[in-house]
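are you around this afternoon, could really use another pair of eyes. what follows is a protein written twice so to speak, once as letters and once as structure tokens for the fold. i want to understand how the tokens follow from the sequence so walk me through it. anything you notice is useful, everything is just below.
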Amino acid sequence: MSTFKQHSILPGFNLALGFTLLYLSLIVLIPLSAAFIRTAELSWSEFWTIVTTPRVMASYRLTFGASFAAAIVNAVFGLLVAWVLVRYHFPGKKLVDALVDLPFALPTAVAGIALTALYAGNGWIGQYLEPLGLKVAFTPIGIFVALTFIGLPFVVRTVQPVLEDIESELEEAAATLGANRWQTFTRVIFPALFPALMTGFALAFARAIGEYGSVIFIAGNMPMVSEITPLLIITKLEQYDYAGATALSVVMLVISFILLLIINLLQWWSRRRSIES
């Protein structure tokens, strides 16, 4: 019995795996390990005191709460934008498709300044909102707006290729069997899109948690009101409190990892369920 050896253009498995682990170690593992090692210089009581002060706890609630809310909004409207770009043809479609990637290319500081100019009390949009009692700039609402702006492309670009691969015959078959449009979407299309939608949600959420440049301009940065955790980390670094900064970084890292792990488990469950069905 003859055996066949499959050749690859890339190096063999052992060499490729070695380069992969080396690259991940240099780029990801070693920097993250440095944060844990520096935090280990603190005793448990010192660490707990730093990461649970009222000011820090308020920043946690604002950072994760605004990031989660922005990711949910982006999941809904990102799906809608991807649907329009894939299923409809209209004048200016290529321009709209290019605009989706604008938050990727735009420097975060520029995005923050632009959003502040729009939503400030004398801005193009803010001047009409404030008389209605809705103040956006220099409030937590402004943070939510900034995080929604920078997170939308992650959902659109994750869902769009999956939506393009869904065969129209599936919808036609569902219609032939008597399903209406809502039933076709909820029982045929959405289950196939759900893993990609969750991936886009996770990417938008993770991006929002670590956002700094666009937020600090529109947030106002008032302690206990509109101060995000990344700003506190930068403040501690400016005060040469490296142990305190790494302590907050470790908390952010652990919470983010747990949340992303939960989302990945949901994706795995969804894929397994779709395969079994």
Observations:
- The first helix runs from residue 13 to 39.
- Residues 42-276 form a domain with the MetI-like fold fold (CATH 1.10.3720.10).
- The chain has two domains: 1-40, 42-276.
- The CA atoms of residues 79 and 156 lie 6 Å apart.
